[in-house]
């Protein structure tokens, strides 16, 4: 195997190992995200309940204001009833009084109904608040529990990044650029082994000439089908590319 291909195989394995931490980090993040999502949902429920309670209290205030106005109106009607003389005036005042009393009764009933809703929602709110506090505690515990996992991963990644930097510094810039271009679309399969004359990137059989060049190991060989860099591994050791 030529030196350029050896460099690419080494670099590819380092990159593959670095990227292997991605699912581990995602798994750790998912633990936190799951609890955070639960907390966000509880906070949204709490805010919604508070809005509903505030809205109903505002309605009660409006009904209470109307009740005051209706009572004032009834007092005024009583005063007028004492001085009116005609049947028409008496009938008109009687109708106004009846309407005012009905409105007064309705407003009182609505206040009672709204107070019942508020009482129910406040009980629900208290339960939600308990859940929020428990979930906040759970989130803190999860965050604390994954700190060591994060640290271990970051330490391993730092070591690998150091190896990668050393490897990159020792490589021909053109070869490195060539590798990075392939890696843009092939990811961790930019450099793959060949077994049974088949590329392990696209799993297609390579032609005899490409395979012969690969065995000679005098230059970098790419798959004629997918363009990945190829190498041959024998007994666990890379011997071609």
Describe the overall structure.
By secondary structure, the chain is of the alpha+beta class. It folds into 2 domains: 19-169, Helix Hairpins; 173-238, no CATH class. Helix content is 77%, strand content 6%. The protein has helices at residues 3-19, 21-83, 87-169, 173-186, 208-216, and strands at residues 191-195, 198-199, 229-234, 237-238. It has a 4-stranded mixed β-sheet with strand order 2-1-3-4. Helix 1 (3-19) runs antiparallel to helix 3 (87-169). The radius of gyration is 40 Å and the shape is rod-shaped.
Number of helices: 5
CATH class type of the largest domain: Mainly Alpha
> Percent of residues in helical segments?
over 70%
Radius of gyration: 40 Å
Q: Mean pLDDT across all residues, rounded?
A: 92
Tell me the series of helices and strands, N- to C-terminal. HHHHEEHEE
Secondary structure class reads alpha+beta
Biggest sheet character: 4 strands, mixed
pLDDT under 50 segments (min length 5)? Answer: none
Q: Architecture of the largest domain, CATH level 2?
A: Orthogonal Bundle
Q: Tell me, what's the shape?
A: rod-shaped
SS strand fraction: 5-15%
**Would you tell me which CATH topology of the largest domain applies?**
Helix Hairpins
Roughly how many Å apart are the termini? 5 Å
Number of strands: 4
Number of domains: 2
**Which sequence of strands runs across the widest sheet?**
2-1-3-4
